[in-house]
Amino acid sequence: MKTHILIVDDDAHIRELLRFLFTKEGYAVFEASDGEQASKVMETEQIHLAVVDVMMPLRDGLELCSEIREHYDIPVLLLTAKGEIEDKEKGYLSGTDDYMVKPFEPKELLFRARALLRRYQLVSSEVITLNQTIINRKSYEVTAKGQTLLLPLKEFQLLAQLASHPGRIFTREQLIQMLWGTDYEGDSRTIDVHIKRLRERFSEMTDDFVITTVRGLGYKLEVTER
């Protein structure tokens, strides 16, 4: 079965460019000119990746991204003419996995799309492998360099969430909602405490991955290249 890409943009020229780019690589392409049309496509087609413009009529890309994140488990790549940090923050708060500013390099967009599709193949797996570090979501065990750790539940869930999407930026608020729930009344800085503990546990144990602070946005896990 071919991988299905949904392109959502009110600019017909952008859609044509992306259709050519993805079709040439063997992907099946679906198109929508606004968020409402995109929702209808997703109701009838199995989509594996959505490339979404931010500024659109009827329902903009941020609204569509939030809807996708609520109802579907697929990666989203936002395209926008706005590159300020505040605009990027809005994009990541809406749940996007990646963010590119127009004008963009078509080949780079293709590389990023491939990376997102690879990352999302990890999500459905009970075992996440980061080089020699293995995270088992069934047994709640982490094995690194032959040593097995049983982490406190929230630390394990936080590590597994970040590791399921290497390179994806998560805000503190997103992580709080995912792990503690929407009714959590504590300080979102509790995420910082758990991140600090994870870094301390693994810093001397393995260099298979690193948890990076993205200033003004949140955190992401990056796998060390071998």
TrEMBL record:
> Where is the DNA-binding region?
125-223
Q: Where is the Response regulatory domain?
A: 4-117
**Where are the 4-aspartylphosphate modifications?**
53
Organism in which the protein naturally occurs: Paenibacillus alginolyticus
This chain belongs to the protein called Heme response regulator HssR
List the Gene3D superfamilies hit by this protein, alphabetically: 3.40.50.2300, 6.10.250.690, Winged helix-like DNA-binding domain superfamily/Winged helix DNA-binding domain (1.10.10.10)
Main location, first listed in the record: cytoplasm
**Cross-referenced PROSITE patterns, in alphabetical order?**
OMPR_PHOB, RESPONSE_REGULATORY
Keywords of this entry: Activator, Cytoplasm, DNA-binding, Phosphoprotein, Transcription, Transcription regulation, Two-component regulatory system, Virulence
**Residue runs in coiled coils:** none
Question: Domain OmpR/PhoB-type: where?
Answer: 125-223
Q: Function, please? A: Member of the two-component regulatory system HssS/HssR involved in intracellular heme homeostasis and tempering of staphylococcal virulence. Phosphorylated HssR binds to a direct repeat sequence within hrtAB promoter and activates the expression of hrtAB, an efflux pump, in response to extracellular heme, hemin, hemoglobin or blood.
Q: Which SUPFAM superfamilies match?
A: CheY-like (SSF52172)
Q: Where in the cell is it found?
A: Cytoplasm
